[in-house]
Amino acid sequence: MWSVRAGLEMFIQSLELTQGQRDEVSRQHTMVRECLRKRLKPQTDFLSGSYSRHTAIRPLHDIDIFVVLGEAASTPSFSSSQRGLAADAALKQVRQALHEEWHNKDLPILQQHSVHIGFKESGIEFDVVPAFAVPGRDSFLIPERETGQWISTNPRIHQTLSTEANETSGKKLKPLLKAVKHWNRRQPSSPLGSFHLEVMSYSAFSSPPQDYLEGLEKLFTHLSQRVLVPCSDPARLGPDVDARMSSNQKTAAHQLLSSAARQVRLARDDSDNDPPRAHARLRDLFGEFYRERGP
After folding, report:
1. For the whole prediction, is pTM greater than 0.85?
2. What is the pLDDT of residue 295?
3. What integer best gives the mean pLDDT of the chain?
4. pLDDT one-digit tens code per residue, 55-106
5. What is the secondary structure of the chain as a DSSP string?
6. What would the pLDDT profile of 241-283 be if each residue is shown by its tens digit?
7. What CA–CA distance (Å, rounded) separates 73 from 50?
8. What residues form DSSP beta bridges with 143?
């Protein structure tokens, strides 16, 4: 039987993508981006979202591709009278490009800020986000389909802040956040989104935790309190990350996170005197991905 700390570390490692998965993701996102470059002639494109910030976990869900179609000031349709049309039109332009390239697949799906396309052979799916650069500002505008408005954002700032927070924690934040994301996937009633969890975690550590077990308790405890207050866009450009959460949802999330923090605290208490019980507590949190011994 592994020690409790070794078991937690092995569990976190099991959430990482394998080299084969990384290679396939690289091949496929390159293929999708080459299609977009050929058909849309964008100003630039880059990976965004959790995959680009190295906080994605297995099983891998959507990979975000940010496609900068041009500059906002040079696009006449950004006038207020056409803003609703332009937002929808930008998404449809991306959908058309993807559909022309893979016309035998189902029509790509229009989403709130992106266009979704999946590849059944590999199981890898992509969300393509059309954007326009704002001249003179370190920001982009992306469409919001529901309102027809354009939202300011900059995923590159999010990536920088994520890296800085990880460095402050002694490079333990991202591994611990992956464990929390896995736990969140197992909560059928959780109202928490992956990006919301990530942004709240940036302020969790002012110094490195002693080990992953201590860090996990601190992170869950921090999140349980942080979820009760507004979560602004870390780039200070767009709306609050939790703008769509109700007060009841925040209370429910607080209770879930508090319960998880207590479970980890009890596991820490049992880790030296009763390792089997501590392992069982962590397995209750994380499910079959958590193991107390090797194969």
Report:
1. yes
2. 67
3. 92
4. 999 888 789 999 999 988 655 455 443 344 488 899 999 999 999 999 888 8
5. ---HHHHHHHHHHHTSPPHHHHHHHHHHHHHHHHHHHHHH--SEEEEEHHHHTT---SSP-EEEEEEEEEEGGG-GGGSGGGHHHHHHHHHHHHHHHHHHHTTTSPPPEE-SSSEEEEETTTTEEEEEEEEEE-TTSS-EEEEETTTTEEEEE-HHHHHHHHHHHHHHTTS-HHHHHHHHHHHHHT-TT----HHHHHHHHTTS-SS--SSHHHHHHHHHHHHHHHTTS----TTSSSS-TTTT--HHHHHHHHHHHHHHHHHHHHHHHHTTT-HHHHHHHHHHHHGGG--SS--
6. 999 999 999 999 999 999 999 999 999 999 999 999 999 999 9
7. 29
8. 150
Q: Which residue has the tokens 């949190």?
A: 285
Angle at 213 between CA 186 and CA 56, to 5 degrees: 45
Using CA atoms, how far residue 95 sits from 73, 129, 150, in Å, is: 23, 10, 18
Residue-range domains of the chain with CATH: 4-16+158-289 (1.10.1410), 19-153 (3.30.460.90)
Count the neighbouring beta carbons within 10 Å of the beta carbon of residue 150.
Answer: 21
1: CB partners within 8 A, 6+ apart: 275, 276, 279, 292, 293
Using only C-alpha atoms, the chain has a radius of gyration, in whole angstroms, of 21
Residue-level pLDDT at 148: 87
Q: Which two tokens stand for residue 218?
A: 């601190």
Check residue 72 and give its pLDDT: 85
With b meaning 16 or more CB within 10 Å and e meaning fewer, what string describes 8-35?
bbbbbeebebeeebeebbeebbeebbeb
The reported pLDDT for the residue numbered 75 is 53
